[in-house]
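Thread: Newbie trying to understand structure tokens

Hi all, I'm a second-year student working on a class project, and my supervisor (Dr. K.) asked me to get a predicted structure for one chain before our next meeting. I've only ever worked with sequences, so writing a 3D structure as a token string is new to me. If someone could post the tokens and maybe explain what I'm looking at, I'd be very grateful. Here's the chain:
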Amino acid sequence: MFEIRLNQIGRRFNRDWIFRQIDFHFVSGERYAILGPNGSGKSTLLKVISGSLTPSEGMITYFSAGNEVPVEQVYRYLTVAAPYMELVEEFSLREMLRFHFKYKEFLNGFDQDTLAERIGLAGSMDKPLRFFSSGMKQRVKLALACASKSDVLLLDEPISNLDHRAIEWYHQLLEDTVRKDRILIICSNQPEEYKSCNAVLELG
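---
Reply by user tm_fold:
Sure, no problem. This is what the structure looks like when written as tokens:
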């Protein structure tokens, strides 16, 4: 059981507040959508939740099995896929998988070969990522995040650069990897991205 509690969270850059006074409680087994127009602070809030940004006001606390998790240890419990997170483009797909899973465990039912098959790029394992299309790179990002063993899965604009067929692939990937012991949080302003979510936090 993992929980994330936001208590009067706010974040500003210089003197401009991006958002303020957000109270929310995320718990395992639920799927959440953070919604709002462009510029409303969705990505910024996701970075605060991930621990990569600190709130300018308020408090965020994390609990694993009822025990509080220090913010500097939160990265151990979560995985992220976002447009602003870059792959190591000098790596081949094989090297990228090995590198990522030095630090994360595979979700039960996955290993390097099954994940490569799942991405649909088993024939490109030794191809440098810099030669992948934007859609192929996005599939790799999503697969790395979803197929890692983590309590919290954070996805920012997950269908960016995906065509219709790849969007169907994305939804099936969620169904196969987002189990009852995980928190799923999706930042989006496109219904196609968050249609499986059952709770909403709206910004702006």
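A couple of things are worth pointing out once you decode it. The chain has a mean pLDDT of 95. Residues 34 and 201 are 5 Å apart (CA to CA). Feel free to ask follow-ups in this thread.
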